Amino acid sequence: MADTTEAEQFFESVASDFDTASPLRWSFFVDGATEDQVDPIMRAAQSMGFTDVEPIADDGQEGRYSLCFAEIRVHTAESFVQRLAEVNQLAAREGLSPSDYSAGLDE
């Protein structure tokens, strides 16, 4: 799980490559979902405002999935840190491991 400083540094690196005053695609990844968890977690992420929620089968563990939650929006460093905290809270509630996040142009 990323700490605040790491998340702020990530945001600064994004800001050096992209115009963060414009909407970007922000993606958050969590690992370890069982097949039974996928649909409820996808609905929870959608209720949080994520517009693109995708399960990805884990090649190394049958019956396990990673989930990608994505949104297209403008973030500030503070709002990104807050959003990451919300994803981490969802992951913790469901017994999942936050694994990564990314940002870029929506293509």
Textual characterization of the structure:
- Helix content is 42%, strand content 33%.
- It has 107 residues and is an alpha+beta fold.
- It has one domain (4-14, 24-104): 2-Layer Sandwich (Alpha-Beta Plaits), CATH 3.30.70.970.
- Strands 2-3-1-4 form a four-stranded antiparallel beta sheet.
- Strand 2 and strand 3 (64-73) form a beta hairpin.
- Helix 1 (4-17) packs across helix 3.
- It is elongated, with a radius of gyration of 14 Å.
- The two termini are 27 Å apart.
- The model has no long low-confidence stretch (mean pLDDT 93).
Which key features would you list for this structure?
4 strands; alpha+beta; single chain; 107 residues; Alpha-Beta Plaits; 42% helix
Please specify the SSE layout and strand pairing.
Elements: H1 4-17, E1 24-34, H2 35-47, E2 52-57, E3 64-73, H3 77-94, E4 97-104
Antiparallel strand pairs: 1-3, 1-4, 2-3
Q: How far apart are the first and last residues' alpha carbons, in Å?
A: 27 Å
Which CATH architecture would you pick? 2-Layer Sandwich
CATH topology: Alpha-Beta Plaits
Question: Structural class, please?
Answer: alpha+beta
Quaternary structure type? single chain
**What general form does the structure show?**
elongated
Cα gyration radius (Å): 14 Å
Q: Spans of 5+ residues with little confidence (pLDDT < 50)?
A: none
Beta-strand level of the residues, as a percent range? 25-35%
**Which class in CATH terms?**
Alpha Beta
